Amino acid sequence: MASSQGLRILFITSEVYPLCKTGGLGDVSAALPAALRALQTDVRLLLPGYPQVLAGVKYKSKVTEFNELPQFPPTTLLSGRLSLSKTEHIPVFVIDCPGLYRREGGPYMDTLGRDWPDNALRFGLLSKIGAILASDASPVAWRPHIAHCNDWQSGLTPAYLHFHPGKKAATVMTIHNLAFQGVFSPGSVIQLGLPPDSFDVNGVEYYGNLSFLKAGLYYADHITTVSPSYAEEIQIEPLGFGLQGLLATRRDHLTGIINGIATSEWDPAIDPHLVKNYTSKKLSDKAVNKSALQQQMGLTVDADIPLFGVVSRLNHQKGTDLLIQVAPQLVKIPAQLIVLGSNHTDLEHQLSTLAQTYPDAIAVRIGFNEALSHLIEAGADCFLMPSRFEPCGLNQMYSQRYGTPPVVHATGGLLDTVVDCTPTTLAEGSASGFLFYPMTADNLLNTIKRAAQAYHDKKNWQRLQRNGMAKDFSWHASAIAYQKIYEALLA
Ligand code: ADP
Ligand code: GLC
User: Fold this and answer.
1) What local confidence, expressed as pLDDT, does residue 1 receive?
2) Which fold, 4-260+475-490?
3) Is 26 close to ligand 1, i.e. is its CB under 6 Å away?
């Protein structure tokens, strides 16, 4: 067995902060490998060569060309370095396949929000190269003990490895979101070079199609997901999204490990995106960010009106529809609302209409804006996350760290990271936000009202803020939990 110090992990992912991020997977793909490297585990990333990745990875050199993969266009493997800070670097392998990755648009969709039509090939290649590098067919001297796959985009790696006759790494499949499953037509099985026999209920087949995620869940040696509560929720309907049966049968190989956050990136004391930095010792400095935010967003500048912030993908998962439903009543409390989000749906349009109707109280910014997301975390009084389901969620942790207690639906990682504010939890010093259940518009609105009322009780509000700010959301404990899984697989 390799000791932790000698462990080599290939971390296969379709996005990584700061080069390419559409959500929490990007954050985790930078912060977890960095935390594991701090524990002396040799983690290296494998990434598709999107233009941003080719531009952002430093000290690139060519490792090899893959000329014997008839299913895929010409491909070159590069190696280089991803810099997270002056002192933190992660070695990366980049798959340079111009025919599949060098194009304008997002990692999964074009500029109009349509899935790329060749996504099966694009992420089939990511999975395939992952499997090659993790086997004795690899042209690279560095050989991982574990291939750590993330979401459907690398779900075929365990399947390819299963059918590889030679020596190979063990596999871990992490579910960040079961709602995205990478489902493609049955013809993709042959197109991607999987054996026809694999198209079976005991294999990659999923209701008559090929599912990348199902393949990963079926063939991986171990499955993890990003919170203990979500690990339970996905074993039954409705949150199993059709995979509950498989997950329940694999429950002995399924572990929920809560995500951490990049504590140096998300620290109000040094965050460069804030108007004024602050700590729990001087919360009056936080108020400077609130007035700046109100001003910048065109809202009435008033310290006494509770300001609720949202930074989110706008969709059914995130409960954006319920938020829109309760917004007119939120304004009447009185309270204010700032939403930063994006998605190509008419929710954007509905939110913009709300902002036009209540220009002094509701502001909406559509688009992806890293700097503004930090300022909202700091400037809002309360953060709203009414997600129908949430595998982990990062913003509720950022907001606690920023003294901005979150209002959340009691599900998945939200349930595992936020403690409801009650007289008892306040007295104990554990209260850090507001939870509601079940997911209805009335419950959301009543909890927003409860938070708004609590905001006016300054002494207790500051206790609530300080409780959240004092919590340890670092990756350290979770990185150790991943290490234990890697070690157990090699034992
Ligand atoms: P998910 O991955 O489901 O979208 P998470 O809470 O895990 O949810 O992570 C979302 C990440 O993406 C957070 O870092 C959040 O700040 C960021 N984010 C989401 N939407 C935006 C946006 N419009 N602008 C900037 N950052 C955003
Ligand atoms: C997914 C989930 C989110 C989680 C993130 C990182 O996008 O929706 O809850 O925090 O992945 O694991």
Assistant:
1) 45
2) Rossmann fold (3.40.50)
3) no
Instruction: Check if 401 has its Cβ closer than 6 Å to any atom of ligand 2.
Output: no
How many angstroms does the Cα of residue 393 sit away from the middle of ligand 1? 8
How many angstroms is it from 478 CA to the middle of ligand 1? 20
pTM over the 0.85 mark = yes
- Kindly report the number of other CB atoms within 10 A of residue 433's CB atom: 26
Q: Using one digit for the tens of pLDDT, what is the confidence trace for 217-260?
A: 999 999 999 999 999 999 999 999 999 999 999 999 999 999 99
21 lines ligand 2 (CB under 6 A): no
Contacts for 325-333 with beta carbons within 8 Å, 24 or more apart?
325/441, 326/441, 326/444, 326/445, 326/448, 327/354, 327/358, 327/362, 328/354, 328/357, 328/358, 329/445, 330/445, 330/448, 331/358, 331/361, 331/362, 333/306, 333/448, 333/449, 333/452
Regarding the beta carbon of 259 and ligand 2, being less than 6 Å apart is answered yes
Is residue 390 within 6 Å of ligand 1 at its C-beta?
no
pLDDT digits (tens, 9 = 90+) for 402-438: 999 999 999 999 999 999 999 999 999 999 999 999 9
Ligand 2 centroid vs 25 CA: distance in angstroms? 6
CATH 3.40.50.2000 maps onto the chain at 4-260+475-490, 283-469
Give the CATH number of domain 283-469: 3.40.50.2000
